[in-house]
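Backbone-to-sequence.
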């Protein structure tokens, strides 16, 4: 079986799906590895490092002609999609709930699509394959560095002959994987850290990292299924925003990470809250994306400064900005999943396997993953189902994250 690694082409994407040190593990399972020339350049893995580890460095055309399975970080670009042929497979973070049309195209082409973001994350044997967690970890770390860079003061308390600087007060909103890593990183830089989440069970995790957990009187427990949050009602959302505004105004740096599977990210920092903040404050909105963000006025991939001097950074793909670490983690997730899927040197697709039921999106010319198939059915012209406008209907708070969350 030949497995090939492509060079990513999305703007700002510096990660690579496989790193040289894992090639030996794949070879041990009877897999031959091809790498597109330059695939690792963005993460400082040279073609020669892949070749030394036993891979063949090839062109895109050779790779498309020869590979049985193609490894990618994100969705394939149109040139790659058009070049795939019947019987080939592709594995990466394909985000089918955000782009079910890609799944339909791959099924039509007879391509088997495998997506890491469909993994059942609470299954303990799947933890080492969990790319959403590994990349959120890297992004949470980087968010703090991005905030510290933009903040015009110190994070730690400093006592010098020229005076004493008080430590920065940092607030983390949303304490899932990225938020917890952000708490730890901000603490290591010496900041005083508070955090809030609608899932009160995260309180002990926040405290174990040295943060203070903020409890709101206005919002009850909003834990949903599979460890995720549920969407708040309009009344809950307004009460939460109003109560949070007072806490936000008291902080120098805010990092927001809140997501609800399959839905628009919740708005936590409103225009009103922004107006109450002091000049020089910095917000990093990790929820920022095509569907919106956690902060009013944030723009994905851009920095905006409000009239009252608050810097809002719409965090784009922060994991890609730490490409060596994120590629190493991602490659381990991919390798572990791949070795789970390969038997006797070939892909052994088995929909009865709990992991495969989540990650195998298309096979044998059909969309086979339940959530993506349901989403496509809802969107089909003949569907009378009113949930067509609501992707979360295909994934009603289940274990699998929605497309808008990644
Ligand atoms: P996520 O990216 O979906 O959301 C980030 C955080 O935002 C969550 O903690 C969520 O509760 C919070 N949030 C949502 N709406 C909010 C609101 N209105 N106000 C404040 N906070 C809000 O989450 P994630 O990082 O992907 O993790 C989700 C869960 O999955 C966590 O419980 C995590 O521990 C769990 N998880 C479990 C495993 C495992 O068991 N192996 C692996 C990975 C993640």
């Amino acid at each position: 079986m030949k497995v090939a690694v492509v060079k990513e082409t999305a703007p700002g994407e510096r990660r690579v799906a496989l790193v040289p040190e894992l090639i030996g593990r794949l070879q041990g399972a009877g897999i031959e590895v091809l790498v597109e020339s330059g695939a690792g350049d963005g993460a400082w893995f040279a073609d020669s490092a892949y070749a030394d580890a036993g891979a063949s460095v090839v062109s895109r055309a050779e790779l498309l002609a020869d590979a049985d399975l193609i490894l990618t970080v994100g969705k394939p670009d149109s040139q790659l999609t058009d070049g795939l042929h019947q019987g080939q497979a592709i594995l990466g973070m394909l985000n089918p709930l955000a782009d079910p049309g890609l799944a339909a195209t791959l099924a039509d082409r007879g391509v088997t699509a495998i997506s890491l973001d469909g993994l059942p994350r609470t299954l303990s044997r799947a933890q080492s394959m969990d790319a959403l967690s590994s990349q959120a970890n890297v992004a949470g770390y980087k968010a703090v560095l991005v905030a510290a860079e933009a903040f015009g003061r110190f994070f730690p308390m400093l006592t010098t002959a020229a005076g004493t600087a008080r430590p920065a007060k940092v607030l983390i909103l949303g304490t899932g994987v990225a938020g917890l890593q952000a708490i730890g990183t901000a603490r290591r830089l010496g900041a005083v850290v508070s955090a809030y989440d609608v899932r009160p069970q995260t309180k002990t995790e926040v405290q174990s990292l040295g943060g203070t957990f903020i409890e709101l009187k206005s919002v009850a427990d909003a834990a949903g299924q599979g460890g995720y949050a549920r969407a708040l009602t309009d009344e809950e959302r307004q009460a939460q925003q109003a109560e949070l505004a007072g806490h936000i105004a008291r902080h120098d740096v805010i990092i927001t990470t809140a997501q609800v599977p399959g839905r628009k990210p919740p708005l936590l920092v409103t225009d009103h809250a922004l107006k109450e903040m002091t000049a020089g404050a910095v917000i990093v909105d990790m929820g920022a994306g095509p569907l919106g963000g956690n902060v009013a006025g944030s723009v994905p991939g851009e920095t905006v400064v409000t009239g009252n001097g608050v810097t809002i950074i719409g965090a784009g793909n922060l994991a890609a900005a730490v490409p060596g670490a994120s590629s190493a983690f991602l490659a381990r997730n991919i390798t572990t999943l791949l070795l789970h899927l390969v038997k006797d040197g070939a892909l052994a697709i088995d929909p009865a396997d709990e992991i495969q039921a989540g990650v195998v999106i298309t096979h044998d010319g059909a969309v086979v993953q339940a959530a993506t198939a349901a989403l496509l059915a809802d969107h089909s012209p003949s569907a009378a189902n009113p949930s067509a406008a609501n992707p979360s209907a295909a994934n009603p708070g289940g274990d699998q994250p929605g497309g808008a969350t990644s």
